[in-house]
Amino acid sequence: MAEITVREALQLAMKEEMQRDERVFILGEEVAEYQGAYKITQGLLQEFGPKRVIDTPISEHGFTGLAIGAAFGGLRPIVEFMTFNFAMQAFDQIVNSAAKTNYMSGGQLGCPIVFRGPNGAAARVAAQHSQNFAALYSHIPGLKVIAPYSAEDAKGLLISAIRDDNPVIFLENEIMYGRSFEVPDVIEPLPIGKARIVKEGDDITILAFSLQVGMAIEAAKILAEENIDAEIIDLRTIKPLDIEAILESVRKTNRLVCVEEGWFFAGIGATISSIVIREAFDYLDAVPEVVSGKEVPLPYAENLEKMSLPTVEEIVAAAKRACYR
Amino acid sequence: MPIKILMPALSPTMTEGNLAKWVKKEGEKISAGEVIAEVETDKATMEVEAVDEGIIAKILIPEGTEGVEINSLIAVLVEEDEQDADLDAFIAKFSTSQKPVEKIVEEKTEEPDKMKPASISAPTSTSVQGVSTNKRIFASPLAKRIAALEGISLSNIMGSGPHGRIIKNDVLSAAKNSKGTIRRDNEEYRLVSNNNMRKVIAKRLLESKLTVPHFYLSIECVMDSVLNARAQINSSFNSDKDKRLSVNDFIILACAKALKEVPTANASWTDSAIKLYNNVDISVAVAIEGGLITPIIKNADQKDIVKISTEMKDLAKRARENALAPEEFQGGGFSISNLGMYGIKSFSAIVNPPQGCIMAVGMSSKRPVVIDDKIEIRTIMDVTLSCDHRVVDGAVGAEFLAAFKKYIEAPILMFV
Amino acid sequence: MFEFKPDKLKLSALQYVKCYEQMLLIRRFEEKCSQFYGMGLIGGFCHLYIGQEAVIMGFEFAKQKGDSMITSYRDHAHIIMSGIVPKFVMAELTGRASGCSKGKGGSMHMFNIPGKFYGGHGIVGAQVPIGTGLAFAEKYNDTRNVCYTFLGDGAVNQGQVYEAFNMASLWKLPVVYIIENNEYSMGTAVKRSTSMVELYKKGESFGINGIQVNGMDVDAVYNAAVFASDYARSGAGPIIVEVKTYRFRGHSMSDPAKYRTKEEVEQYKGRDPLTDVRNIITDNKYASEEELKTIEKKVKLKIAEVEEFANSEPLPNESELFTDIYK
Questions:
Q1: What does the mean pLDDT of chain B come to?
Q2: φ/ψ of residue C146, rounded to 5
Q3: A284 inside 8 A of chain B by CB
Q4: Which residues of C touch A69 (CB under 8 A)?
Q5: C32 in contact with A at a CB cutoff of 8 Å?
Q6: Does domain B3-94 have CATH number 3.40.47.10?
Q7: What pLDDT digit, counting tens, does each position of A178-224 carry?
Q8: Position B9 confidence tier, pLDDT thresholds 50, 70, 90
Q9: Does the beta-carbon distance from A105 to C327 stay under 8 Å?
Q10: Residue B99 confidence (pLDDT) above 70
Q11: Which ipTM score applies to this complex?
Q12: Record: contact B141-A282, CB cut-off 8 A
């Protein structure tokens, strides 16, 4: 066993895939000479050269379209968005060109591309730099959406994303980049579309992805002290959703808490709750709970920002509500 | 001129049937060849096709009506440009006097009004106490399900959840508190309506037992050679698992060969004469959901064992799907019933009238036998022949069984 | 030295005859689309290329094997010239299972990947960065192929076009940007929407050279196409070709075209590229009247076959609703 950070895991994934397949290249702002705005692409320019590690001008709309064209032309681009907030400029190309073309062409033209970068709130960077885009991308048929938590999952899933022939939105988290995890010596590519049971339990299912998985783990410890045995599911992939894992868990525990950083309305938790109610209605002893970010643009002041985002306490409270405690 | 749609006879023995379902409705246009209704016959559900085209003016026999006599008027068609003004007169003129039996309604037994909560034992802190029966009961879906499974009534449980919602724990407590007492179901029984198949089985087999003078002959057969032959043949099929033979396939062929040798066992009684069948058609009993049916292997003596096996597999599959044509299960001169796969050692079956015999086959098992004054182990199968004594005497029955035994114990003879 | 001569080359006799047949096929196909749309057989949007045929033909003659092409939604001519048999294009337009996109794309979303035609795009201007990316892939793979990226005078005002120009020039990508200036972006004349109307100069801020030719003259277009292809293929970077053309019909089938006068349309019809090519052939005796009539009859029969096919083919199977979401 070794210990690596999420940052190192992502770097290794890209490096190994670029070594393995000449068609893989990376483009984005500051990915080459700056070594990456968040140092995720550190060292790649030195190893692969400027043909395969490309600094783009600040033209998200343009370079996203260009990358999609390159993917149509047979290459396998990795597009780094400095944050997914900036990808909004490119939303039309991602949705109308990357996601829909395979369908519109009757299966003739797929788009093997990965869009990756930090997603969600960071540290007091305020409203325009803190939005969580999981729900927005998950809404679109044709896109795969991955949001790993641990280092092993970050590496294993990024490798699979690069190898996947579909457009993949790979949502990272700035706060997680520096966290270390124990990983096996060899990390295999992980299957896209499979959730992971972080901890088994009998009393309640707590479901989360990305940064909030850590919060769920903390919440479970507190709940254990009150004799509530939580089962924690790390979704890992949001689309395609591993609904079977969720249903199997809820059939066992009879209670569900969904946790997400993004806003509630038309969000991930709301959707999963609706599916669980439809598919496992008779197994529910309580209303499925959703812990989400407050429906406000993220404020700057420290105390207000904390209030706007999910907390461990909120997860614990939701779980207890579902247990009628 | 309106066109009458009559209850069709879909099998030679059908005198009445159930009008199971109307596929088309009053006012719908139909063309020749279209399916308009489904009718339940002796053994199967058949589709009724329209012969003429027009519009269904009136349906006289509603869906679900049982005991509709053949040729009674079930609906009336009119041509597109016709008026249905004189429809009633037309109907009155052509309706035969029908006495359709109304659908059996599941009637609850008349019992003195017992108090529902009688099933829950002595009150505990979570029970009754001023729970008004008019109030709506709030319970979580899980609580409702557990209560239903445990047979606990929700109306006496106090809910501890929000708005007085009954939750899982409340139901489990109630169940625990009533554990140790015997919980009697207030409904003494539930009714399962007899479908056509059950009725026919009942009628025919009762008739058989009452009117056919049965006697029974038993033998034991040494099955080792058959098992060897089967193993050898099956291994030659390699990956073609669908072609694998079963022991029953050998039994059918042996039976057919034996009937060819002893044709007097392939016969029926009539008052004036005994019918000796010219073809060896063997009915093989197949268990299906809710009953059994006997698909027929026709001319079994002339078919090789692979053909018999394939045919049997197809017939059994379609029997379970309720997809046999009448001529595939009505008729036959001799029956085989095999309960070996259920572990039955031996049994005597009831003759299927008008056939003369039915052969009941049990499970093959290793048993000690005496051969040349020594105890050896052989695989033995018990076979019991039930015979209609009017048609088949003891000697004939014994002769048949001897022939069967000869073939089944030395299967190589069947392939000569 | 960047010097373009619009009349250096001329098509051969054989090429003119072939050109005439192809242009006629496109013309009759588009007219048939118009008829079908009126009958409700084609639904949604339908953008016709009538009048602009010389543009695609000029580039077709200059194009080399391996070159790719991409355009906007006015793509019927491009897809036919890329090699898709016209009856499958019509089947797509009438939403049949045998359509070139299995009936799931329609008029604006047709593709021929083996023929290196990358669509068919509905969002104005989106094809420009994509075409630039196709050129990027060619350079990455060290081929000598170019990508012909078509856009209209309306798309020229899209921001992403300039983002693409910037990167194409920065990285010297082998892309030929063909601005099909038919003077109107839907209902808005170029003068009303565009501050600088010499569209071939739009690349100047990025160091991209541009040329302008008469898009109704197939020879002029051919010259421009060859020049531009050679330029891009040499590794010198992108180039812009503005072809001044005209569409005889409205922007799409649902456009009553009130923004231009009947006189103007008639004037341009007097410069119909189809008629012009036919005249060149007869004037120079490249083919006899007989031979031309034979060609016309052949095209007529072909269109009849297209009509028959498209109207008799089955609709897509319902199971196709959920296929091709993912590869």
A1: 84
A2: -115, 165
A3: yes
A4: 70, 118, 129-137
A5: no
A6: no
A7: 999 999 999 999 999 999 999 999 999 999 999 999 999 999 999 99
A8: low
A9: no
A10: no
A11: 0.91
A12: yes
Percent of chain A with pLDDT over 90: 98
Amino acid at B124: T
CATH topology of A2-183 equal to that of A196-322? yes
CA-CA distances (angstroms) from residue A312 to A122, A322, B27? 17, 16, 65
Which residues are within 8 A (CB) of A290 and not within 5 positions of it... i.e. 6 or more apart? A257, A258, A259, A260, A264, A267, A269, A270, A273, A318
| Exposure letters C252-265 (e unless 16+ CB within 10 A, then b) | bbeeebeeeeeeeb
Instruction: Identify which of B321, B329, B318, B278 has the alpha carbon closest to the alpha carbon of residue B301.
Output: B278
The Cα of A292 is separated from the nearest Cα of chain B by a number of Å equal to: 23
**SS3 at position C98:** coil
Instruction: Tally helices (H) and strands (E) across chain C.
Output: 11, 7
Q: How far is the CA of C227 from the CAs of A2, C176, C178, C223, in angstroms? A: 59, 10, 13, 6
Tell me the one-letter amino acid at C47.
Answer: H
Quote the minimal CA–CA distance from B164 to chain A in Å: 12
3-state secondary structure of B73: strand
The CATH number of C13-310, from 3.40.50.2000, 3.40.50.720, 3.40.50.970, 3.30.360.10, is: 3.40.50.970
Q: Tokens 């034991």 map to which residue?
A: B220
Is any Cβ of chain B less than 8 angstroms from the Cβ of A235?
no
Which residue does chain A place closest to B148, by CA atoms? A282
**Token pair belonging to B229:** 């032959």
Cβ pair A106:C324 closer than 8 A = yes
Q: Domain A196-322 class?
A: alpha beta
Domain-wise residue ranges, chain A: 2-183, 196-322
- In one-letter notation, the amino acid at residue A223 is L
For residues B274, B278, B279 and B283, what is the CA-based torsion angle, rounded to 10 degrees?
A: 0
Prior bond of B354 cis (ω within 30°): yes
Strands B357-361 and B286-288: unpaired
Amino acid making up residue A163:
R
Residue type, A269: G
Structure tokens at C221: 């277009």
- Counted across chains A and B, CB pairs separated by less than 8 A come out at 26
Active-site residue numbers of B? Answer: 389
Q: In chain C, what are the domain boundaries?
A: 13-310
Pairing of strands B45-49, A230-234: unpaired
> pLDDT per residue over A297-308, tens digit each?
999 999 999 999
Please state whether at least 3 CB pairs lie below 8 Å between chains A and C: yes
| Alpha-carbon gap, residue B204 to B199, rounded angstroms | 9
Domain A2-183 listed as CATH 3.40.50.970: yes
Out of 3.20.10.10, 3.30.1300.10, 4.10.320.10, 3.40.50.300, the CATH code matching B122-177 is: 4.10.320.10
- Classified as helix, coil or strand, B332 is coil
Q: Which of B155-164, B179-188, B246-255, C148-157 has the lowest mean pLDDT?
A: B179-188
Q: How far is B169 from chain A (nearest CA, A)?
A: 9
DSSP state of B9: P
Q: Which CATH superfamily is domain B196-415 in?
A: Chloramphenicol acetyltransferase-like domain (3.30.559.10)
Q: Among A198-212, B29-43, B262-276, C212-226, which is the least confidently predicted range?
A: B29-43
